[in-house]
Amino acid sequence: MIYKMKIEPITFVHIGSGQEIDFFSYIILDKTFYRINISNFYSKLKKLENKEKFASILDNLSSKNKEELKKGRQDFRELLEKGIKYLKENAEKNKGIIIYQAKVDDELYQKYIEKKDEFENQFIVYESMRTGLDFLQYIPGSSIKGAMRTALLSYIINNLGLLKDDFKAKGRLKDGKDYEGFILGNYFYDYEKDKIKRNIQKDPFRVLQISDTSFFDKDSTLITESKNYHMKRNKFGEFNIYTEYIMQGKLAEFELSINTDHFNDKYDGIMKNTIKNKEGRNIKFKEFFTIENIAKACNEFYLDKLENDYNKFYNNINEAQQKIKIIEKQDIKKSIDPNKKEFLIRLGKFSQFECITMDNLRNDPGKLKSRNLVLYNGMYYPAGWAKITWEEFKK
User: Partner of 53 at 20 to 30 A CA spacing, among 33, 39, 255, 334?
Assistant: First the structure.
């Protein structure tokens, strides 16, 4: 069965590319971020004196003298700002120089204006996943599948009433990955390396195929700060992270297909007595892998984590620091109607430990100590929350 899916960030989503955008590869003007191809910028400087000035600046930037480095940094920004302002007014000439542009949050923009010439500030921006040609954002299918997998495994564990001690009793099982392999029946013991391994070819989740999303539109990027709030100290940490996010309310599509034909109705599944040595419920894979169960599992798992985050952490921030405004829990919950073909999911950077580990198998963290929050227009948001809707694919 093939389904047409849509994903829409409710807060802000960052799927990292693993790349950093350094201070010399962009400029921020009028609350807009411009990613620059510096080599093309240099090659298109028409006036000889500008090229010579640019070369001199590069020499200063490679100097070991702190004052020369500082001057090189200031001169570089001034020349780049002047060049980009000109290119903004002459759009036909900026091809190959301005790679893409993005919205910048007001508070980050003010911080950039005030501190861009300070030698100590690197202002590194973490890049999101983008296409190689047009530099448009997208979400890999593997990220969506990983988030669904965690919810579905927790659904299995909760329905069978399994606890961590049930797996510890099996001896060689050491962690969540080992438990997962045991539950799904695709594990084996490597005696030579004295460790549990999983046979990917026997992983039941192979029946679930998810494509990368379509590309989000070119205006979908927000660059802002991510701050870590420490509950014990009642304040944010000093180290802030500048990150590209997919903005809330933007849409992309992907395909999800489920093919359970190779499952055996009688034997392929999970029986409680294989884990707890007791008679009990079992789960047949052929019946389990349906779009309805995926939606149910995701809503149960992620709504529970949303409640947990607010009850144990965010509500306490609001009590301790009235000046810190955090999006209301209900503003996230109301985006989802479980009675319709839609469900909640959380993915990407800052999704937090509880959302990427299985229920009943993680160590209880007790009181939550800190959380990362995304700042936008004076409001703080927990990252990664999104809505997924589906409909059956019509040929």
Answer: 33
Tokens found for residue 13: 């989503």
Tokens of 42: 């240099």
- 137-185 pLDDT, tens digit per residue, is 999 999 999 999 999 999 988 888 777 777 765 666 676 777 777 777 7
pLDDT at 212 over 70: yes
Tokens, residue 40: 């093309």
Find the helix or strand (DSSP H, E) in which 155 lies: helix 141-160
Full-prediction pTM beyond 0.85? yes
pLDDT tens profile 78-104 = 888 888 888 877 767 667 888 999 999
Give the residue among 391, 303, 290, 289 at the shortest CA–CA distance from 345.
Answer: 303
Cβ-contact 302, 355 below 8 angstroms: yes
For the chain, strand residue ranges (E) read 2-9, 16-21, 26-29, 32-36, 98-104, 125-128, 187-190, 195-198, 208-210, 221-230, 235-236, 241-246, 252-258, 269-271, 282-284, 342-346, 370-376, 379-382, 385-392
Residue type, position 312, single letter = K
